[in-house]
Amino acid sequence: MKPNIADMLLFVAVMEQGSFTAAAAHLGCTKSAVSQGISRMEEMLQTRLLHRTTRRLTLTDTGARFHDHCRAIARLYEQAVTEAAAGDGKARGQLVLTAPTALGSGLLAPVLDRYLQENPDVRLDLRISDERLDLIAEQVDLAIRVGEPTEQSARIVKLGDMHDQYCASETYVNRKGGSPGSYRELAQWDHVASRWQGNNPAVLAPDGSRFPAQVRIRCDHLQDVLDFVRRGFGVGRLPDFAVRDDLATGRLRPLLVEGPVVRQGIYALHHYERHPPAKLRRMIALLREELDFPAGA
């Protein structure tokens, strides 16, 4: 026999609440029922899931792996119940979304504003981090990645491409006597770099040439780079979606525009098999629209 879903959900509740007593109170059952459910699963699996002491519960190595999968099942169970009860395909519930800091304000901010207005029954749990979170272990519904994803088991959807280009304020360009004549010259200007450009940022030419950049300011986040560039501190290598409005209004000037310096794909990852929930489908659609990527591509 295999453990039933009820016992697996009970197992999740025990770890979330921290004790059999607290889990029983949370679930509205007896402490003995909780204990019996855990023991029943351990017997069926022929392994110990928990170390029990009078003060605390800790997971065994096997228990920790099993718990990760049980949490994913619990999330899908709640999603299934919510959507079946609604019956109208409306987006609702909580959407856990993770994305790197480079995409936080430039790409996500306008998308999230529209998404929340169009889907008032969805609550967002937003995790902006350069750490690649484990979707199952962290119960993430949707992960946004820059560059080809490495996760083998996830469902991958391309959202579009990110094109980097060099930009500076009109004030800074005038201070330097006009636009640079070459990428080598551009490398000698003051640069505002972000940490995702690495320890030794270089000016990249479309033909693949690299020239060490004169970095004057280094920032953790893309938004900080953009703010310093706007204020005339130097040149920034910035993605097109982050500077679209600044270029249109003349707040920033593009430099050496023969072509995009770097082109990287932006992808969405999730673990829903055949029928992703409406809350997730609508987020993906809005992200593709923001990146001007055709829905059928």
From TrEMBL:
Keywords: DNA-binding, Transcription, Transcription regulation. GO terms for biological process: DNA-templated transcription. Residues 3-60 form the HTH lysR-type domain. InterPro entries: LysR-type_TF_proteobact-type (IPR058163), LysR_HTH_N (IPR000847), LysR_subst-bd (IPR005119), WH-like_DNA-bd_sf (IPR036388), WH_DNA-bd_sf (IPR036390). GO terms for molecular function: DNA-binding transcription factor activity; sequence-specific DNA binding. Belongs to the LysR transcriptional regulatory family. This is DNA-binding transcriptional LysR family regulator. It comes from Aestuariispira insulae.
